[in-house]
Amino acid sequence: xxxxxxxxxxxxxxxxxxxxxxxxxxxxxxxxxxxxxxxxxxxxxxxxxxxxxxxxxxxxxxxxxxxxxxxxxxxxxxxxxxxxxxxxxxxxxxxxxxxxxxxxxxxxxxxxxxxxxxxxxxxxxxxxxxxxxxxxxxxxxxxxxxxxxxxxxxxxxxxxxxxxxxxxxxxxxxxxxxxxxxxxxxxxxxxxxxxxxxxxxxxxxxxxxxxxxxxxxxxxxxxxxxxxxxxxxxxxxxxxxxxxxxxxxxxxxxxxxxxxxxxxxxxxxxxxxxxxxxxxxxxxxxxxxxxxxxxxxxxxxxxxxxxxxxxxxxxxxxxxxxxxxxxxxxxxxxxxxxxxxxxxxxxxxxxxxxxxxxxxxxxxxxxxxxxxxxxxxxxxxxxxxxxxxxxxxxxx
Length: 396
Known about the structure:
Elements: E1 3-4, H1 15-27, H2 37-56, E2 64-67, H3 70-82, E3 90-94, H4 99-110, E4 114-118, H5 128-134, E5 139-143, H6 157-166, E6 170-174, E7 193-197, E8 208-212, H7 227-230, H8 238-273, E9 279-281, E10 292-297, H9 310-319, E11 322-323, E12 325-326, E13 330-331, E14 334-335, H10 339-343, H11 348-351, E15 354-358, H12 365-384
Parallel strand pairs: 1-11, 3-4, 3-5, 5-6, 6-7
Antiparallel strand pairs: 2-8, 7-8, 9-10, 10-15, 12-15, 13-14
């Protein structure tokens, strides 16, 4: 039995998107910048996809700029604003941002920019009052992640955005984990820039987009032919963009029912884990992504080897045919504490034991029940005897 529970990492591409992409590869492969028939066929596909992606967040098509993914969209927001200024200014982010935000901000800091990293509470949430207190006359951008990818907590984006708007400061949110899973309406949400990604909503990898509110200026990251309204040069990946459009259209049609279904499955998994003595849940229990369950392994004192981490549980569940994610980073075989969990106040010992299970379109109640049972068995075995022989898993 194979159960995939890592939908926040990536989702399987929908058959409808694959069919559209195959048609592009074989019949509509022209360069969309070309003026002849072949090129204009591709250009039409790109613009149709732009409309579908725009509809997903209720905006005008011209507000959508296609990118290679969420990382590029995040970088475009950060660096695109920063390049508008001749000398370093001040930028604010949270302590639980995705590396696609935190890493370019580190670059700015090395170049002399002033950076404020807002603290978060135990649930990983930014307090709006702290954002307001951190604003300075030279603050030019605030970037706060909408739905935290590791612990699932949703930020009070509307309140944070309203604060920024009242001070005339640009506000960006990385909504990669949110768009397609919760309703997002940028006509109502006070955001100036928003990042989204194709492969988080059952579209192909290699495509993403950034929403740019009308009137917001960015300096392009790339010099070139001026594609994507002169903001993102380079020949568009027509097939990936077309697949992205199909996935966005289907997500828009299904979001109301799918959000409710995923929330119920999420709560079912929480309910079956709540009495597990070796688990503490991370992130906000209720104000969280609808498909997201996260926790840290909590060993009894002196009963577990320090080598048992979130990665250990990932490997053990993989042997049982269940795919999940560990919360901590692993570089060159060395496990390091999760920066997100550290920012939330967890100790280094606990911050290497974070785990994330994320649900999706193919997840069933049977998957949830089986996973909860196997998870309990594995944790019990690890806590009782870390040197025991490999577990013999029952197959269905």
